[in-house]
Amino acid sequence: MPKSAKAKAEQTVPPPLPEPLTVPVADAHTHLDMQEGTVEEALEKAAAVGVTRLVQIGCDVARARWAVKIAAEHPESIWAAVALHPNEAPRIEADGGPAALEAALAEIAELAALPQVRAIGETGLDYYRTGDEGVAAQQRSFRSHLALAKELDKALVIHDREAHADVLRILKEDGAPRRTVFHCYSGDAEMAAVCAAEGYFMSFAGNVTFASAGPLRAALAAAPPELLLVETDAPFLTPAPFRGRPNAPYLIPVTLRAMAEVKGLDEADLARHLAANTERAFG
User: Hey, what domains does the chain have and what are their CATH numbers?
Assistant: First the structure.
């Protein structure tokens, strides 16, 4: 097999199971519906390495329904979060007008009231994939989700891509929910200080292990341990040294160990912080 073909084939092979954690933790943000294999297989592999809880994200109406369903089927190991992803809002409005967006938000609100739903998310702003024409719809959707999280007293899970200033501004203008999580934290150390002052949780994913992620590691170093979470965002952002291969919740220990090194903490000490923080954020 040519070298390039062999390398391409290897990228489809799931990474091996890492050494199990001694203190169980949760994957604070995953997309099981986008991963290979069954939910049961994902839960079994995760539990084998000490990842005993998953927060399943439903980021459009259909995926939100699915998240609610599997969380009800696996109450001991899966919590659901439901929302319209920031890129969904302008797409829905472009296809069906403002009434279609309002209808979608209304269905999300109905699902969000269910007990297995522990968070409203992922919502927020994404200026990387959506141009200027979609900003207004994104911001309306974000404000709607923010209000819903406060109404239901559930965590708000934020997707923030190239929109730091506007996300922080809207949280300040509208008033943040009691529990706010920056999923796949992407800000710098200065923003981490702002988040810490406001009591926002910062959830780090596998990209913190990338060679190019020096600023992200600086932000992690600045973030208080009591406001940290760990996630996969699987099937995306597979941590090094497995970057490019399929990601899944069982790879949480790889990212956690890299985080512990940055923080100068014992692996078990960081895991205890992460477990307690997950309970405070979602429990």
Answer: 52-282 (3.20.20.140)
12 by Cβ neighbours in 10 Å (0-12 / 13-18 / 19+) ranks as exposed
* b/e code 63-88 from CB counts within 10 Å (16+ = b): bbebbbebbeebeebbbbbbbbbbbb
The token pair at 13 is: 């092979």
pLDDT tens per residue, range 166-180: 999 999 999 999 999
Which pairing describes strands 25-30 and 228-230: parallel, antiparallel, or unpaired? unpaired
- Measured N-to-C along each axis, helices 164-174 and 189-198 cross at an angle, to the nearest 10 degrees, of 10
> What predicted TM-score, i.e. pTM, was given to this entire model?
0.95
Residue type, 161: R
Question: Residue 246: CB partners within 8 Å, gap ≥ 6?
Answer: 12, 14, 15, 35, 36, 234, 235, 238
DSSP character string of 89-120: HHHHHHHH-HHHHHHHHHHHHHHHTSTTEEEE
